[in-house]
Amino acid sequence: MCGIVGYIGLDRAGSVMLDGLKRLEYRGYDSSGMVVSAGKGFEQIKRTGRVVKLEESLKEPQLGGNLGISHTRWATHGDVSEANAHPHTSSDGKISLVHNGVIENYNGMKDFLAGKGYTFQSETDSEALCNLIAYHYDKEPKDGKKNPFHEAVRKSLRHVEGTYGIAVVCPDFPEDLIGARKGSPLIVGIGKGEHLLASDVSAITHCTQNVVYLDDNEVVHLKKDNFSISTVSSKSVEAVIHKVDWDTSEAELGDYDHFMQKEIFEQPTSLENGMRGRFSDDGSTAFFGGLNLNPQELCQIDRILFLACGTAWHSCLVAEYLIERFARIPVEVEYASEFRYRNAPLDKNTLVVAISQSGETIDTLGALREAKRKGFRTLAINNSVGSTIARESDGGIYQHAGSEIGVASTKAFTSQIMICAMLALYLGRLRDLSYGDGVQIVNALKKLPEQVKEILKQNDKIAAVAKKFAKYEDCLFLGRQLMFPIALEGALKLKEISYIHAEGYPAAEMKHGPIALICEDCPSVFLVTSGETFSKSLANVQEVKARKGKVICIATEDCDIPDGLVDETILVPECHEIVKPILMSIPIQLFSYHVALERGCDVDKPRNLAKSVTVE
Ligand code: M6R
Description:
- This protein is an alpha/beta fold.
- 36% of the residues lie in helices and 21% in strands.
- An eight-stranded antiparallel sheet has the order 3-2-4-1-10-9-11-15. The protein has a seven-stranded antiparallel sheet with strand order 5-6-7-8-12-13-14, covered by helices on one side.
- The protein is globular, with a radius of gyration of 26 Å.
- It starts with a strand and ends in an 18-residue tail after the last helix.
- Residues 309-312, 356-358, 361, 364, 407-409, 492, 496, 609, 612-613 line the site of 5-amino-5-deoxy-1-O-phosphono-D-mannitol (M6R).
């Protein structure tokens, strides 16, 4: 949510930041701006709309410069306008700042600063912090003992309630760039004769692969050739440099039109990468390197609590079905944002698992911290190496799905389900699951990449179905058992990128209310698999047809769907129960993608959304 790029070093600040903003645009795209030291002094350029608007406004000198800060915004305080876009500059012109997060006590700050003569151009909380730094800077002694700019930032941050990732510059110090974080990620990039700041590694991997992840309450002081980190309360911190193993082509579209499309088609590879090296030699179980829990400790777990938001929460629901069924461990699933403030009583042998693609979702991070504070063992299933959630959990499993840029999660979802299936297998084999059952599951998982490729070959057919259904304004997604979370995910995918009102329900629950919506103009997508609830699902289809509802049926090949019962059928390969949620997800992703295209929607940048939600 919002992206930050800062730069100090060689004479290319503007162009490096512009590249970085383009890579970060999926995090927020209401407006963007930069302050860059170009020629005579600092220049500020801000534009509403996409980063391309900023790019069109930049002049040659502004693409150079040795120092700058920049931002792409997802509005929290104040509407989308140039005044509210970042960077903000203090009313005395001494400080410019870009900010991610929310300053909760900004009203009090503004009142205090107004009394001291500072004025405000925007409705943002961020401008209050910018002026507060200017206020402290004004008061700091300029006797050369301490850097007054650095001190002013630190002193101001001691007064902040809320969250921040910031990058700050001061025209009096054209060789200094300062960053700080609390609750909102900030990463230092270390180059040759240059340093960068970014809210996300993907913004800087085109310049360097050496990074330092700042922790909460840390302030970094960057110069061209060196940097130092200290806490807000002035204790120095030793920097730990990480090498990011990042394929920069992941952030590029290649032959695809959209990142969502690219990521849907990458699923054979992302699934393959997530299981590589994680099966036992006897082919009957999975294992994970980073759990930090030995088999004895895992056998003492009485309950697992999964925490997540959005699509990742749907993965947790799948995990609930799989772990209860194959490992016989009771599972609970909570929205992270609810758990955090609910004070739920938990048994001491509960393992808490947070699932998050980005590893930066503030609600999930807050819930994880709350669980840790109460003394629970925590694990993270996470796609972003080095993310805050990955670093703060006691152990974890990386998804290795590759970076996901499309705001609508696709490959991260199927990879999360696959990791949960492997976890169910591993925990099951530590308990009652037999060797033979384990072998069957491993074989089913290994077949996944090829089976996903088969489904992807139906892209044109699914596009044709989507074309027929794109005109409707309402849609239900219905499925039983393991297909219920996939129905929820189908509804979320469709609504977030095509703005069609869509709801997911357990198919049988339809009769308890949603059936009232069924009519010629409200189609249903049924997710039907073979097994004990197959005939019940067909009965639910009949109930919809009896009320003139149109039906798209996504089914496994071994389902015998009576001729003429449904309007459209999309088949996925016959498979083991444990992988059905993965295979059945692919058609709903393609369907949503093509419906959104048909309606002329921007699938990678849907309105009001941002990829990673780092504010509460
Ligand atoms: O990065 P996370 O997995 O923690 O993100 C959680 C949700 O914000 C995310 O899944 C969101 O619901 C997606 N836009 C869904 O496509």
